[in-house]
Design brief:
Elements (H helix, E strand, L loop, with lengths): L1 E4 L4 E8 L11 E9 L1 H11 L4 E8 H14 L2 E7 L4 E7 L6 E4 L7 H9 L5 E5 L8 H10 L4 E3 L3 H9 L3 E2 L3 H8 L4 H11 L2 E5 L4 E5 L3 E5 L11 H14 L4 H18 L7 H7 L4 E3 L3
Parallel strand pairs: 1-4, 1-8, 2-6, 4-5, 8-9, 9-10, 10-11
Antiparallel strand pairs: 2-3, 6-7, 11-12, 12-13, 13-14
Helix pairs in contact: 1-8, 4-5, 8-9, 9-10
Length: 294
């Protein structure tokens, strides 16, 4: 079981526009999807696509929270959801013919420590993955205490969330190059190696369309296949979910990394997490390139 603990869940609205986005002008929506959202939900979708067990955990609130619960159930995804105050946020993605959408994300309701405590008591057994942004007002000390109370979680976050993950001795962090630079001052593979050397925290470094690298006792790089991207949103979440599923299934680090990179590429090629398919990921594995860094 992979438990995707998501501190700031959302309703994700993806709108396809009738023409390229021009500020100050009228645009009409030619396609709309609304889905349960947040990095952990995308991760859980990937795990399920490969036949694994996954669970989405988080705090929801208001009418949007109930809509979130209904949408998650409609997809057949398992959820451990704690009702809190405020309104679950909405995140908008505008597709207008460009390779990358315009994203508009609300902040979400403020941190609710009592709801979080109740939620943590209800988590099922499994590998906990703390995914995405923190709720507004989350104190660093409170987040650190939560991580210390978990069994060496995986953390996919940024800023103070990554700092706390390293301090707590997380089993793995998944920054992109920009997030790693914010943590260490550099987004390079050498920086990830130095971070592992001094902390013992493994690093899964994502590099967008260029692929990903794993840094631990083993160090591997995988170059991504060349694809035509329709919607890359959620590709990093899909990559991480696939990597964790593959490792739990007994795959070696390099094989898991190749499949994960292929899955992230398939997500972008097919149009996002709702359209991701395991078969497409497996077909792209042969087009990845495994490197052993010097």
């Amino acid at each position: 079981m992979i438990v995707a603990l998501t501190p700031n869940l959302s309703l994700d609205r993806t709108m396809t526009l009738n023409r390229p986005l021009v500020p100050g002008q009228l645009h009409r929506v030619t396609g709309l999807t609304v889905a349960a959202g947040g990095k952990g939900v995308n991760l859980a979708r990937a795990v399920r696509a490969f036949g694994g067990q996954s669970c989405v955990a988080g705090v929801i609130g208001g009418f949007n929270g109930q809509y979130f619960r209904a949408l998650l159930n409609a997809e057949g995804l398992m959820g451990v959801l704690e009702d809190g105050e405020g309104e679950t946020r909405e995140c908008q993605a505008l597709l207008s013919g460009d390779s990358h959408p315009t994203e508009i994300n609300e902040a979400g309701p403020p941190y609710q420590p009592e709801a979080v405590v109740h939620l943590l008591k209800r988590l099922p057994e499994g590998q906990v993955v703390v995914c995405g942004s923190l709720a507004p007002g989350t104190p660093r000390a409170g987040f650190l205490d939560m991580l210390l109370g978990l069994d060496r979680p995986v953390v996919d976050g940024s800023g103070v969330g990554l700092e706390a993950a390293v301090e707590a001795g997380a089993s793995l962090i998944k920054p992109n190059e920009h997030e790693l630079e914010g943590l260490t001052g550099s987004g390079t593979l050498d920086s990830a190696r130095e971070l592992y050397r001094r902390s013992g925290v493994q690093v899964l470094l994502t590099r967008g369309e260029r692929g990903a690298a794993f840094v631990g006792e083993e160090v591997w790089e995988v170059e991504a296949p060349h694809i035509d991207a329709k919607n890359p949103v959620g590709s990093g979440d899909t990559l991480l979910g696939t990597f964790l599923w593959a490792r739990q299934a007994g795959e070696s680090v390099p094989d898991a990394l190749r499949l994960a990179v292929a899955a992230g590429s398939a997500n972008a090629m097919l149009g996002g997490p709702l359209k991701f398919r395991m078969r497409a990921a497996r077909e792209l594995v042969a087009q990845t390139r495994l490197l052993i860094p010097a």
